[in-house]
Amino acid sequence: MVAAITATLVGASAVPTPLYAIYQQRWALSTSQSTLAFGVYAVSLLLALLTVGSLSDQIGRRPVIVAALMLEIASMAIFAGATGLELLLVARIVQGFATGAAISALGSALVDLEASPGHGARINSSAHPIGLAVGALFSSTVSEHFPRPTSTVYLVLLVVFVVEIAAALTIPETAPRRRNRPVSIRPRVTVPGPAVGAFLLTVPYVVAVWALAGFYLSLGPSLAHNALHVHTSMVGAAMVATLTGTGAASIFVLRAVGPRTILLVGAGTLVAGVATTLYGSEKSSAIAILTGTAIAGVGFGAGFQSAIRTVMPLVQPHERAALLSSVYTVAYLANCIPSLVAGSLIDRLGFIATTRIYAGLVASLATTAFVGLAFRRNRADAPSSA
């Protein structure tokens, strides 16, 4: 149930992606305004991570999860009633805070409840790409085949989240409140001492994979329109689903491989995938774009899995939510800042030129991580043995 709630929350964040084209047409939005709707979500999520991200370590997992789901329900209602950019931004802000408040508590609960070492981290890593894939495809399908495309999908999710609140109340409490410790929501990023080395090792790669995900989630429909000259939301959703779906599959396939090896494999496939996707956008080739996206998806799933598996076993249970919040802080900074910059550059430089710059950034980060890991040798094996 914890994994299902995680996937649903993350999936809901991808629901607006196929709808951006409809919003642009109805409300005469520019590309930069569409990416702003994505960016405010990530900023709000980061604010939640910095303030209440470790709250479940202090008051328990279940209260934080239930409160976050209530906020998510409010965001779905605002989405369903949105009639312009202003309400869309409000909905994204509320949704971002709800997701940020929940994901570290949910991820920590999965590790707390794991049946065997590493199992919870693998499930948590899988829930994110699976949720993104299902959310994008579900939204696109509803918008293409059902009436009121910009409200129906949110009303369905609202009902789902109501059901999940009832289910969340039955989750075993794995981090009961410590009465002798004051509750604090002071903004902070905490990496416990034993995990600092492993955390720094994974940062360049986490930035690369989440920057790539941010591009697809904010600009995927624009890529389909500009490079492939198609106007259906299904193509943009298919690209998101291809990236995240192959990411989820790679987590399953590589589940028995050591974290350092996964990072090496992931960095290599990420560079190859980005290069292939860029070639496809230059040549207006749907086959090359989807092939490159699938290859990059392996790097996306592998990178996030290895980051979680590397750092989470190194800390005590009461430190897990704080550490996971720090990992997500890096991830979502990388998720929103490059895409916001790209949105503004498109209006000045054009889509293809911006795509080249973005691809170069992601490839450079992944290459840096690959080279660093390749020369780290025995020192890089330390997190795996820990």
From TrEMBL:
Asked whether the keyword Transmembrane is assigned, the reply is yes
Q: Which UniProt keywords apply?
A: Cell membrane, Membrane, Transmembrane, Transmembrane helix, Transport
Instruction: Report the domain of life of the source organism.
Output: Bacteria
**InterPro entries per UniProt:** MFS, MFS_dom, MFS_trans_sf, MFS_Transporters
User: What is this protein's record name?
Assistant: Multidrug resistance protein
Which compartments is it annotated to reside in? Cell membrane
Supply one GO CC term from the record.
plasma membrane
Q: What is its main location?
A: membrane
**What start and end residues bound the annotated signal peptide?**
none
User: How would you describe this protein's topology in the membrane?
Assistant: Multi-pass membrane protein
Q: Using the record's annotation, list all stretches that form the Major facilitator superfamily (MFS) profile domain.
A: 1-378
Q: Which residues cross the membrane?
A: 38-56, 63-83, 89-111, 123-141, 153-171, 191-213, 233-254, 261-280, 286-308, 320-345, 357-375
What GO MF annotations does this protein's record show? transmembrane transporter activity
